[in-house]
Structures are given as structure tokens and as C-alpha cells.
Amino acid sequence: MKSGKSVCIAISCYNQEKYIGQCIEHLLAQQLESNIQVKILICDDASTDRTKEIIVDVIEKKDLNGNWHIEDHSNRQNMGMPKNTKRIIRLLMDSGADYGCILEGDDYWISPFWLKKHMEPLDEEHGISMSNNYLLLYNQESNCFAVRQYPVKVQESKYILPEMQAEDNYTGNFSSNLYRISSLNEIPQSFLEQPYVDDWFVNLLMAMHGKVASIKEPISVYRIHPEGVWNGNQNVSEEGQEENTISQRIRFIHQHYPGKYIAELAAFSEHWAKIPMRGKIYYDIGTGFKEEQSLAVYIMFENKSHFTVDADLSILPKRVKALRYDPEEGYACDMWGMQAILDGIEIEMTAENGIEKNDRIVFDTKDPIFILQVPRKQMKRMGSFHVEGDIEFK
């Protein structure tokens, strides 16, 4: 490529002959400065329809100048969306470009200045790892457009903060983001070993490695249709998976960024995967267990059922009379292999509202409770608290 800024755009597509023409037309309509070099990577996942043919036809009909470069990286055999997405991310990371993005074949940019608007904040501030724009949602079946609604905290912030992204996917889909390639390469490379790598996960990691500039304009269209890759179910547990991939990705984040945004990640897990992570330790100071006398603690799953909880009880009042542990609220569950350790000493846990059955504690209530049998002497000076065991939600 010539001197000047360079952008690598990977077209991710599979059997999207109905939509791919519009996607490519709008991409090639981008108005760029003369020193901007654009490399398009065609990453078709072995479509069985005319998707690939349409891409080539549209490009060949355009009188593109020497600033545009086309490379075909299509698969000969279908890999499936998760593997193909990871392959595309690797291509971006190795592209040598300044900036990169993934444009999904059923989406399109409605502004001819999409690239310009995204590149401006990245050019102006090196601490920005990526840029993001508001989404215009298009329902294919009802033929209706609507701007995605964002909470006030997102509307009023110049940046999508990591705690915002941990809570929900406010950065939207891949097609509405432009990445700084050097920042993309700063992410722990093992993230690509996860079974499932999506926009929420990648963009959260990017937010942890720099600022996410928020462009408050709906300049890209996210198409909702029955054949869509996501179709509203991107965060549902995948059939046949041993463990929900959201739990796997949250564990990865916790391992590489311990304790970061755990409350927001717990909210994301419960909302999208229906897997609660938030529990509470109640402490009685002589007036009984009360909601205002509780400490939030968070489950971290090591696999589909085994979990750990770690908390610092030194912050509790000195006059605690009794302790109670509520693993979660809102779900009946079975638990087994439970073990509690306080300052290196194992303490007994008594299930207050569960029934022992076949080596399990069965909770038919949606508020399982354990009473922690802490010796009085140990209660006077408490520090590190650890719980682990297995849980299965009903």
C-alpha cells in the first residue's frame, strides 16, 4: 500500500445473496481522502447461493481507483460463523493496516462518510482503541426502521466505557465499529481460543485497552431477518455445548482482568444466559438478618456446574453474631460438594431451606440459604472467605 492511513475491511458473509449487493454498493460509495488506502477482504464462508458471485460482479462494475485493493480470502469449505469470525479477526490482526473492521454481509453503511467519521477520532487521539456508531435497526419482515434506544448514561458519555459494555452490548454489532489494529493486537491472544467470539466480547476487550469513541449518529443499518446469523439469539446457550459460552467468556475476562466489572458481567449473564452470578452474605449484628446488612458476592464458574466465590469479610462490622450465605436469588437449584473456608479454616454450612437427596441439596425455593457455622472466636476477626461447589439450575 502507498503512504498514508490504511483501512482493512473484511466482508463476513454466508448465503446472503438477497442483501450482499446493497452491502457492497454502500461500502464502495465511501468518500475518502486521496491518501487513504482501503483493502477489502472477501471472507465468504463457502456460500451455496450467489453471494460470492454478486460481490465480484458489483466490484468489477465499479471504476475503483488505485486506493482500493481487493483480496479473496473465502473458504472452500464452510467453517460456521464462530470459526469464520475468529479467522477474520486474525486476518485483521495480521493485515498491517492502521484500522480495520468487519462488515457483515446483511448490514450496510448508510453514510458515504462512515469511514471518515470513524477515522477522525482514531486519528485525533491515539488512546482511542475503537470507534462506534449508533445503530439504525431495520426489520426486514415489517419493512420498518427504528433507531436503537440507548440509556441516558450512554447518550451523555463521549465514550462507551468498559463497565457499560460489560453490562450490555452498547457497541452493537461488528458492522458499526472500526478498530485500531495495534490495539486489537494488544488483547490477550488466547481470546481467540474461546469457542465463541462475538462483537460483545471483542468490544469489551477493546474497551479495556483504550477508549471507545461513541459517534451519536445512526450511520449503519443492522438488518433483522429470519435468516440472520444473530436473529436476537446471539447470547443463548448453544445446543450441544458443555458449558454456556457466556460463562466461558466471563471467566476469561476474570482470569485476565481479576475483579473488573464483575457486577456488570453478572447482570449480563443473568439477562442473556439466565445464569445468575450474584449472591449475598448476610450478617446479623444482633437484630436478625436484614437486607441492609448484606454484602454482594459473585459466583465464578470453572465449568458448567463448578463454581467459586471469594470475598473479604474484614470489611464487616466487628460485632457480627451470625453469617448466612445466599448463593443466588430467583432460581430453584440443586447444589452438591459445597465447601466453605474462612481464613484457611473449613467451616460447616447448613442448608436452611434445602433437602438432602442423592448426595445433593435440593432447593425448590428460589432463594437458597446456607447458615455458616462460624465459631464465636473466629467471628471476632474475619478475613478471606471462600466457597466452592457445584450448582445446577432448574
Automatic annotation (TrEMBL):
Residues 8-131 form the Glycosyltransferase 2-like domain. GO terms for molecular function: hexosyltransferase activity. Keywords: Transferase. PANTHER family: GLYCOSYLTRANSFERASE, UDP-GLCNAC:BETAGAL BETA-1,3-N-ACETYLGLUCOSAMINYLTRANSFERASE-LIKE PROTEIN 1. This is Glycosyltransferase.
